[in-house]
Design a protein that fits this description.
This protein is an all-beta fold. The protein folds into two domains: 8-379, Methylamine Dehydrogenase, Chain H; 390-464, Sandwich (Immunoglobulin-like), CATH 2.60.40. 3% of the residues lie in helices and 49% in strands. The chain has two helices and 35 strands. The protein has helices at residues 8-16, 213-216; strands at residues 26-27, 30-34, 49-57, 60-67, 70-75, 83-89, 100-105, 108-113, 121-125, 134-139, 145-152, 157-165, 171-179, 187-192, 200-204, 207-211, 218-222, 235-240, 248-254, 260-265, 272-276, 284-289, 298-305, 308-314, 317-322, 330-335, 349-357, 362-370, 374-379, 404-408, 414-418, 424-429, 433-437, 444-452, 455-464. The strands form nine sheets. A five-stranded mixed beta sheet has the order 1-26-25-24-23, with no helix packed on it. Strand 24 and strand 25 (317-322) form a beta hairpin. The protein starts with 7 loop residues before the first helix and ends with a strand. The relative contact order is 0.14.
Length: 465
């Protein structure tokens, strides 16, 4: 795994920007861009490229990007020296191709395409990366086309959305679920047609969060019955069809602790939605927001990681939002990958994938695929000035502190304390003079936010010895 030179910037960045909008959104640091002008764009959307995916394997970080020609593999461990290390041609190629999708499991990459009657499910052995890959399965026996796939790695199940069959008969399914008990030989477990269309899915431990396109809205379905003798029906846990800016329910992602789901409707000018999904009996919209670039701006795909929401926006490129407080999200990073600004079309950033380095506890890089301009690799370190976080003696003392510190401010009514990963560890009401007890907090740096009735009056940092 690559070494992270500036480790603290991302941690400071996540936390300091979780209070409100004390700093502007920063432009991401572009490290690498690739595009191949010899490839044929689609006739429908003029897109040469589509989905992006990432894998960390054998100490390397690999970017995987789809094109009208097939699947490209790049070693981006050291972005300044990034290069394409292998390529797998699609079973169907050319100007009719718009969509490809990817997910990996147990050393294999699963590949689908949503165009062409000769398309297949491809399974690619990626265990030899960053050197090479090997196609181990390429067939339309199970299905021919799919719009999106998702693998529930905890239960070894492949969820295939918007499925089309041509072998031996022409028919479609809203979603099909396959066992990956044998990763090289997926076995059909269940065909889900309880809704007309499933455009995309996020699944964790047999609980599927389904984005059901136009009219179908959002559904949460329990598929744990797949471990019992059939016929047993899946259980609808929740559904949401009426909500702000309800349109073509396109895609979403669940946060790390399973309490917040981001939902994207693929309509020009429609906001991103953050949902409270902690109680399936009471799904609610926590906030709605957008890139703020144009009244026709439209989000396409998103991933949540470590309190940050990474979004690929048509026309507006990469947008990263701090959602540590999901009721008050705000943008902290951006980069426009497609400069023409005719927002009425479907062009620009398609997908996004952030690499998290667990050893360094930091983002190492961020991948973006742009439909017209190819692969982008951005730095995962955020060069954010933190001068405004210096402690003010009249507000916080002593600093560093051992077991407690004191805040004196006439207008402050509350304090929130965050750790370096953006997790809220303390919230307390204040009087004019208030002593904050350390309690069970471990030594190190924390970040505070003082609020009065009008909102935030001071952000800063406190160190416990």
């Amino acid at each position: 795994m690559k070494k992270i030179i500036i480790l603290t910037f991302i941690n400071l960045f996540i936390v300091t920007l979780s209070f409100a909008q004390p700093f502007p959104s920063w432009q991401a640091n572009l490290l690498y861009n690739w595009q191949d002008t010899t490839l044929t764009p689609s006739w429908a959307y003029d897109n040469t490229y589509n989905e992006i995916w990432g894998v960390q394997i054998n100490g390397a970080e690999i970017a995987i990007i789809g094109s009208t020609a097939g699947t490209h593999f790049f070693d981006v461990t050291y972005p300044a020296n990034a290069s394409q290390v292998d390529f797998v041609a699609g079973a169907y190629t050319g100007s009719d191709v718009v969509h490809r999708d990817y997910h990996d499991y147990n050393g294999y990459l699963y590949v689908v395409c949503d165009e062409g009657n000769t398309s297949t499910l491809q399974i690619i052995d990626i265990n030899n990366l960053p050197n090479s890959v090997n196609v181990v399965y390429d067939s339309n026996v199970l299905f021919t086309k799919s719009h999106n796939i998702f693998i529930d790695t905890a239960t070894a199940k492949l969820y295939v959305c918007s499925v089309k069959h041509t072998n031996p008969n022409n028919f479609s399914s809203a979603m099909e679920i396959y066992s990956l008990a044998n990763p090289l030989s997926p076995a059909l477990l269940y065909t889900y047609n309880n809704v007309g269309h499933v455009h995309d899915a996020y699944v964790r431990n047999d609980t599927a969060y389904l984005n059901c396109g136009g009219g179908g809205g959002f559904r949460i379905v329990d598929f744990s019955m797949l471990g019992t003798p059939l016929p047993v029906q899946p259980t609808l846990l929740a559904s949401l069809t009426t909500y702000p800016d309800a349109g073509y329910n396109h895609s979403g992602w669940l946060n790390d602790d399973g309490t917040v789901y981001v939902m994207l409707d693929e309509n020009h000018g429609y906001d991103i939605k953050l949902l409270d999904v902690s109680d399936f009996n009471n799904i609610s919209v926590l906030s709605t927001f957008n890139s703020g670039v144009d009244t026709n701006s439209m989000a396409h795909n998103a991933i949540i990681k470590k309190g940050l929401l990474f979004v690929s926006y048509y026309h507006d490129g990469l947008r990263v939002f701090n959602i540590a407080d999901p009721t008050n999200p705000f943008e902290v990073l951006h980069y426009d990958t497609y400069l023409p600004n005719s927002h009425a079309s479907y062009k620009g950033a398609w997908g996004v994938y952030p690499f998290w380095d667990a050893q360094s506890h930091a983002f190492s890089s961020i991948l973006v695929s742009d439909m017209q301009t190819g692969l982008y690799v951005f730095s995962g370190s955020f060069p954010l000035a933190v001068n405004n976080l210096e402690p003010v003696p009249s507000l916080v003392f002593p600093n560093p502190a051992k077991n407690q510190f004191t805040i004196t401010n006439q207008s402050a009514i509350s304090i929130i304390l965050y750790d370096v990963f953006g997790k809220r560890v303390l919230q307390q009401n204040l009087t004019n003079s208030k002593t904050i007890e350390r309690g069970n907090l471990s030594g190190g740096m924390y970040f505070y936010c003082l609020k009065n009735k009008e909102g935030i009056i001071k952000n800063g940092k406190i160190i416990f010895e």
